[in-house]
Amino acid sequence: MNANEIIEIENKHGAGTYAKQPLVIVRGQGASLFDIDGVEYLDCSSGHGVANLGHAHPKIAEAIYKQASTLITLFETFPNDKRAELMEKITSLVDGLDKVFLCNSGTESVEAAFKFARISTGRKNIVAAMRAFHGRTYGALSATFNKKYREGFEPLVPGFSHVAFNNIEALEKAVTDETAAVILEVVQGEGGVYPASLEYIQAARRICDERGALLVMDEIQTGFGRTGKMFAIEYFGVTPDLLTCAKSLAGGVPMGAVLIGKNVKNLTPGVHGSTFGGNPLSCAAAVAALTIMEEEDLAGQAEAKGGYLIEKLRAIQSPNIREVRGMGLMIGIEMKQKVAPYLKALQEKKIIVLNAGMTVIRLLPPLVITYQQVDHLVDVLAEVLASEMQNAE
Hints:
- The chain has 13 helices and 17 strands.
- The chain is α/β, with parallel strands linked by helices.
- The strands form four sheets. It has a seven-stranded mixed β-sheet, with helices on both faces. The protein has a four-stranded mixed β-sheet with strand order 1-2-3-15. Strands 13-14-17-16 form a four-stranded antiparallel β-sheet, covered by helices on one side.
- α11 runs parallel beside α13.
């Protein structure tokens, strides 16, 4: 099939829930994607933060092949060697979180965290932040702030409220003795790439301790090296009660997890479950992915390359840039106008990026992106911004 035939089939049979791009991508390698005609694109989206290790990492492919030839699926009632290996490895990453629930996606990990918080505390209320994005299933959607995701699906799950991000006073007022949990992103990704302040996260921990609520940190996009640490919470000296993660956990294979601390109670057999959660295939891929992250020091690479990229972005002379912000290789470029034309222009120049809201260009490149590719990204972005300025004049 050629590109037009593939696009036509997807448009005909797809549910219609995605705004399709006019590109048919068939292959990836490192930080590059290739269309059906072999044209190379620099991927600065990583599949919304999934491809931290890059595309088609040979060790991930080898682990998947080996496990698929051995055992693909097994319900968690039956212990398994690869699952045990993953559980031991992932719970070693954060001191104080020594248990884990395995699932299949980020939104599932958030749903599990909410259930665990409610059954643990006997309370119903969940406090989330304005601009937050936690997922699209009903519980996660109830914690998500942007009305464009919520409209048409009400009534949502009761007991959820939202307060201003990075506002300690608002959080103090919102958390009561009826609050089961507070859920926060360390960096708000979909909301515009806004990092939390040190004081805010530390205050959230204190407030939850004082009121008997659980602190849930959403590291679905920030986890596994993206911000320059294995988990972004390491910058803050705080241990949450529940940590949700997914995206790059299994090197591109669908997988999510909730890391669980000692304050979480009443998790007995039958309280929650997942048919595919903890399947040996995903576990094998995750073990390989975590091993690669350590061996290749991807967190260190993200810290160094992210600092380099932010410095170069801030040096671009453009009156349309309002602010460049981020942590590691999770970067937002806030513009003074809508960014859709910039995204289109960059794609025409073979660079794929994301938006974060209407006015923020979001960069989430694979952590294996080279410095040469970073320089190319900055050069093309500067060219596009200059061109758009000329067109505006």
